[in-house]
Amino acid sequence: MSIASDRKAPITGLDKFYIGGEWVGPSSSDTIDVIEPATEQVYFSVAEAKDADVARAVGAAREAFDDGPWPKLTHAQRAEYLRAISAEVRERTDDVIQVWPRESGILAGVAQGMMGGIPDAYTYYADLAETYHWETPETPTAGGNYGMIVREPVGVVGAIIPWNAPMTLIAYKLAPALLAGCTVVLKASPEAPGAPLIMAEIAAKVGLPGGVLNVLTADREVSETLVRDPRVDKIAFTGSTAAGKKIAGIMAERVGRYSLELGGKSAAVILDDYDLGKAAATLSGAECFISGQVCSSLTRIVVPRRRHDEMVESLAGTFSQVRLGDPFDPDVQMGPLAMQRQRDRVESYIEIGKSEGATLATGGGRPRDLERGWFIEPTVFGNVDNSWRIAQEEIFGPVLSVIPAEDEEDAIRIANDTVFGLNAAVFTNDPDRGREVGGRLRAGTVGHNNFHTDFGIGFGGFKQSGIGREGGVEGLHHYLENKTMIFEEKPSNFPS
After folding, report:
1. Angle (nearest 5°) at CA 322 between 167 and 379
2. Which residues pair with 217 in a beta bridge?
3. How confident is the model at residue 107 (pLDDT cuts 50, 70, 90)?
4. Residue 363 — left, alpha, or beta (φ > 0 → left; ψ -120 to 50 → alpha)?
5. In whole angstroms, how far apart are CA 181 and each of 76, 176, 425, 479, 480?
6. How far is CA 305 from CA 276, 383, 405, 436, in A?
7. What sequence ranges are listed for the domain Aldehyde dehydrogenase (predicted)?
8. What are 130-152's pLDDT values in tens digits?
9. How far apart are CA 89 and CA 203, in angstroms?
10. For residues 276 and 473, what is the distance between their CA atoms, to the nearest angstrom?
11. What is the pTM of this model?
C-alpha cells in the first residue's frame, strides 16, 4: 500500500488528551475537524480542549516539576530519555509523512527529507548534557570567598506551535526544555494536531514520567488560558507577530518568561554581479516549500533598477512552470495552501497588489486544472514600491514582490525598511561583498546565494520577528534561570 492510498490517520487517542502520563477524556464533547487541503475532506477529528482541560494539564506539569522526579534527575539521566525519544521519532517517520501533507499541504517528499534531521535535534541536546557548563565558578566581588553560577530549569513551559512545521518546531522547544529539567504543556494547533499526538504516544512509549509532557489541542481563544495561568513559568511560541504581541503583553503583566518566533517579510538582495537566472531558480524553488507558508520566506526581491525587468522575467519564467497538485505525487513541485482561510488571505493580497499598481507578471489565480483543494498559482509582482502593503505585510503564501533599487546603498535601505527582521539573503559572486552587505542587514539569519535557516546554529529574528532564539546552544538558554551562589567555605562539589 502506498503512503498516498492510506487515508486512515496512524494515531491513537484522537478523542483524548495526554495529561499526567495518561490518555484522559476531555471535559466536553466538542471536537475539531482536520481538513485535508488537497481534497477539502475531513481527514480526522480530535477532541477540543476547554479551559478546564488546560488547567488540568498545567496542574499535571506543575506537580511534575514541583514534586516529581524529573527536575531532580541529572542532565545525563534526562539525556537518555532524549535519545530514546530520538529513536522513536525516527521510527515514526512514515506515520508523520502520512499526516503532515494532509494537514499543511507540504510535499510528502519534502516531509520525508525534513524528518531525516528532526531526530538529530533530540540527540544534539542529549549530547549537551556532558558539554554544557551547567555550573561555572565566579570570583565574588562583594563579600564571600567562593562564587558560582548555577543554571537551573525555568519551570513549567507552555509550548504553543503553529500548523506549518509542527514536528520540527516541537523538537526545538521540547528537547532543550526536557534537557534543562522543565515540564511542558504542548498546545497543538487545531489545524495540525497530528505531530503533537504522535509525540504524546512517543512520550508514553519511552516511559517519560507522568506530567513531564502534556499534550492537548485547543483553538486560539482557549490558548490564552495557558498563557495567563500563573503556574506556567514560560511560554515558547511560534506564530504570527500579532499573536506574539498579545502573548508578550500578558506575560509582562506577571513578569513571566517568554520566547517568540514570529513573522517575517524577508529580503533577497541581488547584487549587480550575480546571474539572474540562477537567482530566479533558487528563489522560486525555495518559495515552493510548504507553498510559501514559511515565516522566513524570501518574498521581497531587491534588484538594481536596470536589471529589474530581467529579474521579473526570469522569476515569472521559473515560477510559472511549477507543477501544482497532490502532495503525494512525486512529480508535483508545490502542494495546496493549508486551509481555505489561508487561500482567501493570499487572494486578498493579490488583489491589493493589483490595486496598488504592481505589475502582475505571472500567477494571481487558482489553477484551472485543479477543481478541488486550496491551491493558488505561484505569483510574481514587478515594479513594487517597498512602502506598499504587499511589500510590508506578511502574506504567507507563494507571492513574490520584485522591488527596484537605485544602487547598493538603496538596496540595503530597502531591505531594512520593514518592521520585520527574520531572514535575508545576499546574492553575489564575491563572498567578501556578501559578508559586507550581509553584515548591514538587520535580520536574524543572512544567507549567501540561497535561502538558509539553520536551527542547529540558532534561529530567530530582529525587531518584530521575535525575541530569543531556537536551536543550538542559544536555544537552551531560554529554558534556564541563572542562580548566583556565594560561599564562605568551598563546597566539595564546587565546579572546577
Report:
1. 90
2. 188
3. very high
4. left
5. 11, 9, 37, 8, 9
6. 13, 9, 5, 21
7. 23-484
8. 999 999 999 999 999 999 999 99
9. 10
10. 37
11. 0.96
What cell was used for 485? Answer: 551562589
Please tell me what DSSP assigns to residue 491: -
Cross-strand pairs, 381:
360, 401
Which amino acid, 393? Answer: E
> What pLDDT digit, counting tens, does each position of 369-426 carry?
999 999 999 999 999 999 999 999 999 999 999 999 999 999 999 999 999 999 999 9
Cell 538596496, located at residue: 411
The Cα–Cα gap between 89 and 76 comes to 20
When pLDDT is cut at 50, 70 and 90, the band that residue 100 belongs to is very high
pLDDT above 70 coverage of the chain, percent: 99
Residues in the chain: 496
Domains of the chain: 17-262+461-484 (3.40.605.10), 266-448 (3.40.309.10)
Beta strands, E only, 250-338: 257-261, 266-270, 298-304
Q: Provide CB contacts within 8 A for 395, sequence distance 6+.
A: 292, 299, 345, 346, 349
Quick one: pLDDT at residue 220?
85
Residues 203, 171: Cα–Cα separation, whole Å? 13
Give the span between the Cα atoms of 295 and 261, in whole angstroms.
9
Nearest alpha carbon to residue 237 among 474, 470, 463: 470
Euclidean distance between CA atoms 365 and 367, whole angstroms? 6
Using the Cα atoms of residue 13, residue 14, residue 16 and residue 21 in order, give the sign of their dihedral.
positive
Q: Give the whole-angstrom CA distance, residue 49 versus residue 207.
A: 24
- Name the amino acid, one letter, at 427: F
What cell numbers appear for 245 in the block?
Answer: 504581541
Rg (CA), the chain: 24
- Catalytic residue numbers read 261
Angle of CA points 265, 249, 19, to nearest 5°: 95
Query: Rounded distance, CA 67 to CA 155, Å?
Result: 12
pLDDT at residue number 6: 57
pLDDT tens-digit map of 264-280: 999 999 999 999 999 99
